[in-house]
Amino acid sequence: MAEYEAKFTELSGFVPEFVNTEEKKARRFQLATKSFISRNFSNKLNLNVVPLREVLQVEIANREIIPVNQVHHRCKLKLEGKAFEVDLIPFVLGKFNMVIEMDWLSSNGVQIDCKKKKVRIRVQDGKEIMFKGQRKTHKFLTMFQTKNLLKKGNESYLAYVMDTKKEIPDIQDIPVVNEFEDVFPKDLPGFPPDREI
């Protein structure tokens, strides 16, 4: 084990940006104690914004660091008619409207059951608020979704699928076409003659 750690330490010197230092771990932990709201969503709600005491450096998945300097204080988060207060930092969140911090979830008695996809919140009067997630299954993509996936660099394959076990129907079995059998010969004599247009 000591040999592995020594080799890791040696190699990590070549790519320090990929190695978690204690400072990076502390920064990530600090950000886990913040709640975020999508900028687009907060703009629609016309929330009052105030400057943060100090600028936060938020590292996103592609390792880009984005400075954040605003917060919406004491926002009302209503769940099943019950109001909760939360401070929300406007940020670009992609498909999410909000990301709620772990400390807020913990202090409000939230229990998350990942296996059953349930979130329970016990409120002061002893009642329980419960949300159940649903698994989305997409059998087909729209052209718009496909276009966006291709723009992002996803691979695509075009397939033409035929059921080879299915028999080709006779002309007599095709409605309307069966009334004009003489128009559809069994064998094509060749290409049509050239015509002037």
Summarize this structure briefly.
The protein is α+β, with helices and mostly antiparallel strands. It has helices at 2-12, 22-32, 39-45, 102-107, 143-151, and strands at 36-38, 50-59, 65-79, 82-91, 98-99, 110-113, 118-122, 128-132.
Architecture overview:
There is one protein chain. It is elongated, with a radius of gyration of 30 Å. The strands form two sheets. It has a five-stranded mixed sheet. The protein has a three-stranded antiparallel sheet with strand order 6-7-8. 22% of the residues lie in helices and 27% in strands. The mean pLDDT is 80. A hairpin with a 5-residue loop joins strand 7 (118-122) and strand 8 (128-132). 5% of the residues are buried. The protein is of the alpha+beta class.
Radius of gyration: 30 Å
Mean pLDDT: 80
Strand content: 25-35%
The helix/strand order is HHEHEEEEHEEEH
Oligomer: single chain
Total strands: 8
Q: Report helical residue fraction.
A: 10-25%
Number of helices: 5
Instruction: Find the structural class using helix and strand composition.
Output: alpha+beta
Largest sheet, in brief, is: 5 strands, mixed
- Show unreliable segments: none
Q: What is the CA–CA distance across the termini?
A: 82 Å
Overall body shape: elongated
Strand order of the largest sheet: 2-3-4-1-5
Sequence-ordered SSE layout with sheet pairings:
Elements: H1 2-12, H2 22-32, E1 36-38, H3 39-45, E2 50-59, E3 65-79, E4 82-91, E5 98-99, H4 102-107, E6 110-113, E7 118-122, E8 128-132, H5 143-151
Parallel strand pairs: 1-4
Antiparallel strand pairs: 1-5, 2-3, 3-4, 6-7, 7-8
